[in-house]
Amino acid sequence: MRKLAQSLISPTIAGLLGIIALLAILQLAVSTGVIPKVVVAKPTAMMDSIPELIYKSHIITNFFITFGMTLAAVLIAIVLGVPFGYLMYKNHVVGEAYEGWLAAMFAAPIVLLYPLFLVIMGRTYGCLILMGFLPGMIPIVIQTRQGLLNLNKTLLNVGRSFNVSDRDMFWKIMIPGAAPNVFSGIRLGVMYTLVNIVAIEYLVDFGGLGRIVSDLYFRYEIPAMYAAIGFVILVSVIFYWAFGKMERWLRPA
Amino acid sequence: MAETRVIAAPASAGFAWPKLGVTGVRILTIVAIVAIWEGMARSGLLYKDVVPPIERIIVATYNELLAPAFYYHLWITFAEVAVGFVVGSLIGLALGIVLGTNEYFRKAMEPYLNAIGSTPKIIFLPIIFLMFGVGMESKMAKGAFSGFFPMVFSTTLGMILINPVLLRVGKSFHLNQWQTITKIYLPAMVNPVIVGLRLALGVTIIGILVAEIKFSDGGVGFRLIQYYDQFKIAPMYAMLILIFALAAFGNFGMTKLQDKFNWNMSSSGKKSSSHGSLRA
Where are the domains of chain B? Predict the structure, then answer.
């Protein structure tokens, strides 16, 4: 019976049906008071709060604030991270000296440094961009170095045989060869940057999406808060999906 | 066929780095950071006390280590981390095993797990506060929620990557379910589970500290933000140093544990599937 059901319904449809069933149970449980509505909002109430979220909380504008800060932080991370990764590849002493430190920093709770930057820079967009840039740059540096170390030696030898200048060697052989790794680093960097920026927005009640969730919680607008959290999940999924697609395009099987 | 002669590249094209060893570069970096910090502290460019001189931070760290209140808050954080880590890891491990053995269920669940796994977990804090209040329970729940994802991803991947030949050999020897678990699954799962535990511990600690910073009345995260709110900057830096040292110590311990298991597996001639989480 179970096998028959599995052969008739694809896993994607089954997953979707599971979510719909979960929402229906939630609706029923909140409507009947089994789950207090001050704790969990009814799914229909969340849907009803979407216009309020758009017109009152300006969630779209705030999305662009978070997006803009993420983009700025990632761009700075790329501009500084790729050359630094190249330096670590070119000079093995520098590479070895910083490799362990970068790996340790990657696992460190960098988000907790925010009071340090707040006291120096204040509650500014610059502070948030800097806090997003720090965790975003580390995977870019590590992956750039790794990509260059894994370069096909034949490509480098062919370049040298044609007396290619250092500049052309870098732009025409090394960067295209290391691109899949560099892009993996950028994808990780984007996700870490987004996570950190939203986290600090939420912690300091400043900026875009994170601030909205915090605001709605303080105002006790529970359905709108749930809808805003749903919106943040949607944004993360879009980022994750888009960068995953681009990475697969750059790194064919 | 024409042959292309390889011309050796010049030995050191471009920037010539001073002849320093790895330790030399590290020492130079630390000296440069200390010099920049001290320069900023004494320049008067920033508000007074925003960047205190290093000796004041060292004294504050020393005082913090002697303060009984620090250990009280450390104990609170430790209890929260312990409960959150155990609960999150166990649930992640159980679900990972189910997802690893049931392909249909995995395909149905994967998009949703990936969606929530890639979302900043801090955004769920208001829901956790509504459900568990602002006491220690909410920090434990946040820690469990954060730690669950790396564990489930790592365990699932470990299950998927178990060599099917081993399972077929087990079947041909008529191993029962218990023997299959203890003789095949468990040895092959040790490494992915340890990797998952290491990642889970890191994110559990961060998740709990962030929750303490937002709303709490105890824990080292609370103590850190209390110093910030009271503009006690040197103790705030001291707390940051201690928190980073504790997080590094936890990570180091888990890495050593992972290395130990790797060594045991390789020395006993067993091959394990050494992989990280589904998402790096």
Answer: 59-267
Question: Model-level pTM?
Answer: 0.83
Enumerate the residues of chain B whose CB falls inside 8 A of the CB of residue A222. Answer: 130
Tell me if residue A246 falls in helix, strand or coil. Answer: helix
B224: contact with A, CB 8 A cutoff: yes
Residue A84 pLDDT exceeds 90: yes
Residue spans per domain, chain A: 2-40, 50-250
d(C-alpha B274, C-alpha B262), whole Å: 8
Nearest neighbour of B51 by CB, restricted to A120, A195, A217: A120
Q: In angstroms, rounded to a whole number, what is the distance separating the alpha carbons of residues A56 and A54?
A: 6
- Fold held by B59-267: MetI-like fold (1.10.3720)
Residue B125 near chain A (CB below 8 Å) = yes
Cβ proximity of B100 and B159 under 8 Å: yes
CB contact under 8 A, A112 and B129: no
Burial A13-27 (b: 16+ CB within 10 A, else e): ebbeeeeeeeeeebe
Complex ipTM: 0.84
Residues 6+ apart with CB under 8 A from B87: B140, B143, B144
State pLDDT tens for residues B251-279.
Answer: 888 888 877 776 666 555 444 433 333 33
- The CATH classification number of A50-250 equals 1.10.3720.10
What pLDDT does residue B263 have?
65
Sign of the alpha-carbon dihedral angle for A118, A122, A125, A130: negative
HSE at residue A205, side-chain half, CA atoms within 13 A, is 8
Per-residue confidence at A151, pLDDT binned at 50, 70, 90? confident
Cα nearest neighbour of A119 on chain B: B50
